[in-house]
Specification:
This protein is α/β, with parallel strands linked by helices. It has one domain: TIM Barrel (Alpha-Beta Barrel). 42% of the residues lie in helices and 11% in strands. The strands form two sheets. Strands 1-2-3-4-5-6 form a six-stranded parallel sheet, with helices on one face. Helix 1 (20-33) packs across helix 2 and helix 3 (82-90) packs parallel to helix 4 (105-114). The protein is globular, with a radius of gyration of 17 Å.
Length: 281
Amino acid sequence: MGVCNVTPDSFSDGGLHFTQQAARDRVDELIAQGADFIDIGGESTRPGAAPVPADAQIGRVLDAVRYAASRGACVSIDTADPGVAAVALEAGACAVNDVSCLRDDGLARIVAGARAAYVLMHARGTQSAMPGFSRYPDGAYADVVRDVVAEWEEAALRACSLGVAREALVMDPGLGFAKNARQSGELLARVGEIVRAVGAPVAIGASRKSFLTMVERDAPPGERIGASIAAALHAARAGAAMLRVHDVRATRQAIDLDRALTGGARSAPHAASEARLGGVG
């Protein structure tokens, strides 16, 4: 899942793809690099970011969604707003990436009505209330994997009660969302346990996040690519079905070489998305 942030203030690439042409260029780049999904969002979810009204999000993302869909890409809309999701799905998106852990029941109803895929990410509260990057109380979880899985399952059951098909769900443990660096690192280290615990494919979004500075303290987002690729490779080996990344080509190369050296199958572009969405939409 390649990231296309049509925002002025995202933590890693804010402003880079904010104009209509820059967003289209980013879509072209991600397709050329072999992304299975293009995740398009118009609202930054970095800690402390202010909420963006639905009409502003739509104004930012709609052209990019339409353009990506016209190019045959599988598009996910990164939003927690039902109105934004509805417009994007109508414009050609096939999935919703919800970082709010279903804060608004209306979002599940929109997903159900469109028979779309639903990436449901674990979170507590809003990112605007987060005190800073990777800052969260160390004792907030008794066991971070068990607590995250249990809280995600509660949201998943609610989504299903609102009409979302269980097979349409993808589980994301939400690295960096209501977690400090230690908690995010532990979730990543124990991805295999998460995969075994949930009855849904697991998505991991570690790319360039602040907790990766555990291996190089002062590295800015654009210089966390090595750690990001290592995180993605670890998650893939542990059974994660989807990786949300900024650096698609480098990540695919690492995973494909690892599989070639260990006798695994090479990941053909779009194979994962086609298999995942075979019964949806």
